[in-house]
Write a structure and sequence with these properties.
Elements (H helix, E strand, L loop, with lengths): L4 E5 L6 H13 L3 E3 L14 H9 L4 E6 L14 H11 L3 E7 H13 L14 H10 L7 E4 L2 H24 L1 H28 L4 H9 L2 H9 L11 H9 L4 E3 L8 E6 L4 E6 L22 E5 L2 H4 L7
Parallel strand pairs: 1-2, 1-3, 3-4, 4-5
Antiparallel strand pairs: 6-7, 7-8, 8-9
Helix pairs in contact: 1-6, 2-3
């Protein structure tokens, strides 16, 4: 199972006890600590050792920076210490960073700000005033990188425990809201589709309502009614009387134009199946084209089936 990787950044000799306490704490909560002195950073021979530390930060999720009174080893760029460069690398990569400053250094930082231009001023809590200059940069970092003073390692572990618990609780809340977000996104998509449909129909309406007629005609209630009455297993579509007649004739129905049919209905007989289908004449206009009818306007009695009597089934049944 994947674990969050926590890179611990600090000078070594003055912070080795704090680093050991942090390593133990990180392991206890089930995360993976990354400390160079434990061999967690794989080194190669192609580049300087510090470059492999910076590269390892890219594989970590969180960087915990501990700043004390020692400046530390100079980075090869001659602008920062290695510890400072590690923190800057994490910030540039967008990693979550937690910064802890030894309380004595943190307290004297304000004194330094008031006296840094005074000739001969020597801070007592640091071995190099560049530590304070780096703190100036840290306090200028974008929001989201908290800076906390500490006296003992317990101060750091207590703060991290509360912060990481808060992150986990927020993750649970965000996960529970995912369903709500999906519903909202679906509603947005539906609303967009409806808006596009309204726009399309509004534009097409100026062309004589042909688009609206096409939509209504494509789902005409007569299609499903004929399919059911004639027991047709596939989709039924027709737009004129002649097309309906051809459709039914293909299913062994013969148009009955005799004088004994139901008034106001067209009728087709299927002697093999021993039943017929009648269709209301009024669903066609004077040009024998299917009228546009909505489901609300449709009457189920306009299409139905009827049994054929034995006398209609065959001429062999006639007595003479």
């Amino acid at each position: 199972m994947a674990k969050p990787r926590i890179f611990v950044s600090s000078t070594y000799f003055d912070m080795r006890v704090v680093r050991a306490d942090l390593e133990r704490f990180i392991k206890e909560i089930g995360y993976e600590p990354v400390l160079f002195e434990r061999g967690h950073v794989p080194y190669g021979k192609e580049e300087a050792l510090e470059e492999y530390c910076y590269r390892e930060i890219s594989t970590c999720d969180v960087l915990v920076a501990i700043i004390g009174g020692k400046y530390g080893s100079q980075a090869k760029d001659d602008k920062n210490s290695i510890t400072q460069k590690e923190l800057k690398t994490a910030v540039e990569l967008g990693k979550q960073v937690y910064i802890f400053v030894e309380r004595s250094v943190h307290s004297e930082y304000k004194t330094y700000q008031n006296n840094k231009e005074v000739e001969g001023f020597k801070p007592a809590s640091v071995n190099d005033s560049r530590v304070f200059k780096f703190l100036e940069e840290i306090y200028g970092l974008p929001a989201g990188n908290p800076v906390e003073p500490f006296e003992i390692s317990d101060d750091i572990t207590r703060y991290l425990r509360e912060q990481w618990s808060g992150l986990f609780q927020r993750l649970l809340q965000e996960s529970s809201r995912q369903r709500e977000v999906m519903i909202i996104e679906n509603l947005k998509s539906t609303a967009s589709t409806l808006n596009n449909l309204v726009t399309f129909l509004t534009e097409e309406r100026s062309k004589g309502d042909e688009a609206i007629k096409g939509i209504l005609l494509s789902s005409h209630p007569a299609f499903s009614a004929i399919k059911k009455a004639a027991k047709i297993p596939y989709r039924v579509v027709f737009y004129t009387f002649d097309e309906l007649n051809e459709l039914l004739r293909a299913r062994s129905f013969i148009f009955d134009d005799g004088p004994f049919g139901s008034e106001g209905f067209y009728e087709w007989d299927n002697h093999k199946a021993e039943y017929g289908v009648r269709v209301k004449e009024a669903i066609f206009d004077e040009d024998d084209k299917l009228r546009i009818l909505t489901p609300e306007e449709w009457d189920d009695a306009w299409v139905d089936e009827y049994p054929l009597s034995n006398s209609q089934n065959s001429d062999d049944d006639l007595p003479f």
